[in-house]
Amino acid sequence: MAAPQAVGGQAVIEGVMMRAKDHLAIAIRKADGQIVTDVRPWFTLVKHPLLKKPFLRGFPVLMETMVNGIKALNYSAVQAADDTDEEGGELTTWHLVLTMVLALGAALGLFVVLPHFLSVGMEMLGLGGDVDSLSFHAWDGLIKMIVFVGYILAISYIPDIRRVFQYHGAEHKVIWTWEEGRELSPASSRFFSRLHPRCGTAFLLFVLAVSIMLYAVLVPWLLTFYSPENFIVKHLYIVGMKLFLMIPVSCVAYEMIKFAGKYSKNGLCKLMCWPGLMMQMLTTKEPDDSQLEVAIAALRCAVNAEECR
Fold it and tell me: 173-194 pLDDT, tens per residue?
């Protein structure tokens, strides 16, 4: 039996967040073994019909996913703080905005600004061409991928992050169980794959791949209209344009992952999904049955929101 509705999720601290339709549910395993759940409306930015159109919806969906994800992470952190008798509370609106700005700024700095200026360094060393050459963007793309994989590898050695990666694996296994119409139980879920084509890791890889291709074409084209003579101003201008171009990049990447997820059994889509699935070998770990129970609790509350309130 096919799943009656689509679901998605995210691992949090000692738990899982699941989304179904207009609700999200967060399930957390407390230190005493109890599972606590919280059901909330899904904060959305795509209420206007225009923002639901293909190739327009990607960026607002990315932003709303960040907002809901940060809120879910904050809730899980508060629950963990309760276990350790630490004082804390959920983020206020201003704290949430500041957290989002810092998180987005750090991501853009790490995966857009840093690779660009390292590519400039390659040009200075005589190993690459100017910014309007293909070699510059080849270096830029290669450095982005190295930074991304290196970052994931580095954090995977942190014990707390490894626990989150286990819950990430639990999330995927339970979603597969739901999509295949099987009974929601650890016994049913444990044999499913911890890799899933619609994972956020795959989306990030699509974003990186699309940005490499678009930058290689659009940056030289934009420089034909305006190219500052000053070296520093020129590269600041290009970096600014790259940051702005992340909006269409995320929109294209979103449609790609939607397409690949919808036709995941198609040969071309399997090829498109393969890099993302390989990256999930790093971002997911095999969960135990207690972690599968938490993911199941989150999914059940997400699809039966009224019963869990």
Answer: 999 999 998 999 999 999 999 9
